[in-house]
Amino acid sequence: FHANSAFILQDFLWYPEVNGSMRQRIKSWTEGSVAKPHIIVVGAATWSIKIHNGSNEALAQYKINITSIAPLLEKLAKSSDVYWVLQDPVYEDMLSESRKMITNEKIDAYNEAAVRILNSSSRNSKAKVKVFSVSKLIAQETIMKSADGLHLPESSRDTNAMILMNVYCNKITKPIDGSCCQPQPPLTLIQKIAFCFFTLSIIGYLIISLIHRNNYRKNKPCTDLESGEEKKPAISTPHVSTLEMLLHSFCKLGLIMTYFYLCDRANLFMKENKFYTHSSFFIPIVYILVLGVFYTENTKETKVLNREQTDEWKGWMQLVILVYHISGASTFLPVYMHIRVLVAAYLFQTGYGHFSYFWIKGDFGVYRVCQVLFRLNFLVVVLCIVMDRPYQFYYFVPLVTVWFMIIYATLAIWPQIVQKKANGNCLWHFGLLLKLVCLLTCIYFLSYSQGTFEKIFSFWPLSKCFELNGNVYEWWFRWKLDRYVVFHGMLFAFIYLALQKRQMISEGKGDPLFSNRVSNVLLFISIVSFLTYSIWASSCKNKTECNELHPSVSVVQILAFILIRNIPGYVRSVYSSFFAWFGKISLELFICQYHIWLAADTKGILVLIPGYPMFNVLVSTFIFVCVAHEISQITNDLAQIVVPKDNSTLLKRLLCIAGFFSGLHFFSAMQDQSRH
Fold this sequence. Notes:
Blueprint (H helix, E strand, L loop, with lengths): L1 E2 L4 E2 L10 H11 L8 E4 L3 H6 L4 H21 L4 E5 L18 H14 L12 E3 L1 H9 L11 H20 L15 H30 L3 E2 L6 E2 L10 H23 L5 E4 L4 H17 L1 E3 L8 H21 L5 H29 L4 H21 L9 H17 L6 H6 L2 H21 L2 H9 L3 H5 L6 H9 L3 H17 L14 H23 L4 H24 L2 H4 L1 E3 H8 L1 H11 L7 E4 L5 H30 L4 H29 L1
Parallel strand pairs: 3-4, 4-5
Antiparallel strand pairs: 1-2, 6-7, 8-11, 9-10
């Protein structure tokens, strides 16, 4: 077969026995300036069994012949991909009388001889003949469908060819999915530096721990033999130093990042592709909801969107999103549209939470900004380094980071309008509304001016953060998809806090939010609105058209949910501690799933235990949740050290962080130059 357009030449050479003819053909490829094939697929045995009636002498001669061609194949393997195909099993009951001597026992003996002899003299791993054993595995599943008991059905050959193409092509095309056969990418300069840093942190922590243990033994209370009383040590147990706490955190983080790398960059664990079914999505959702309802407790406070309630909201949304990702439910449009609302609800909470803090506290200091930015971005920055991925790859973190800065800028620029100032003069409320109108105008303008948006984020150093595959289109798409919902969250917070200040709502335990009549009307409207949106989302026919409407209408279901959850007093007074626990680590869960639960950068599913899919999901999920919880603790500990409250110390730390990112940029530039 010769395809000029693709520069492909494929030859099928009929050499049914390992003999002198086959040896001569292979030898011709190793001599002189003859063009060597890029791929050689070779194998033979069944004809030898048939012609020689399955005799032991034929097997002995087969071993001699294999031994003679093995060095030639290994020589070819230095420059070409050489595959020795194991002989497929047969379905002995269907074989004709002339083929009855071809038994599975004989085939296994020939296969074992070939595997044992090939590569026996090769010490170079790159010059090895690859044993193509997958064809034997496929044949074991499909030989029953054979027409004559010997030849496999067409589907088996198609699968063999597909795997062979994956083996050769995937190391060139490097697809980002759960496909097989990709070579392990080489470590980059930045990854090597990170490895050295974590190694030194682990060594440093172990040294400090040993020193403390020895000091403890020296100062351990000892018994006075005369009085029988314990003597107290003169020196008290030393306080945990900042350095020890820092090394301890980096030690744990280094071990966790090693697990990340092994799961999704090394070829240690397999990945499998996702296949969506309704049961794979909806059954886990039902289990999760039942568990959530089972762990119901009373809230500490009964305000609208109190801390327990927002943690609960984040928790169940995150669990639904995780099930959505692992089941591949994005292919089912109604589910996709509802998940888009959940993502929008996260951003709504971003607008609501940060606006409420700045409005009530009036704290626009650098410490608050640095604390939020550190907690949002720490894990992602580490993953960008360890996993060699751009910042925009973890799109949700850049999204909430930019929106936080927009909220901060909107409220911090002159005039700074906060609740304390507005209480003295109602005109300040109109001033804040004017700020929100200006923000909405800017959002509207940028959403319909892609060129302006891309120019803003194409300037260095913003381009280093927001480019993906050489452009900022992905960032523009993600930002545009939920462009109004943060504004809606800010506006809702403003209206709610204004009503609360004027005591127009009742937030007592068990009390409805408004009067009974108003509460019943709003509750009815909310339920109808919630169901109307779900019906519309379920009837969506085109993802592009639905995405265009989503930014404007997603707030309908979000507000409907908030009112349904908060208007009845008895509903507002309880929360699910199960969901709230997951809500506290929702950001870590969302980011960690990329590499240690889904793997293949979310395109596939991590396989820790092959052959047992349910058990594999249970084990990988347990590890995944534990890791996310531990990273949350590490982030909180490091935030106290890296972002101190003292302004002068904080300024020094910020200079160190600036130096760190400058160094990172320098090494990244060196890395890019070496690649090109």
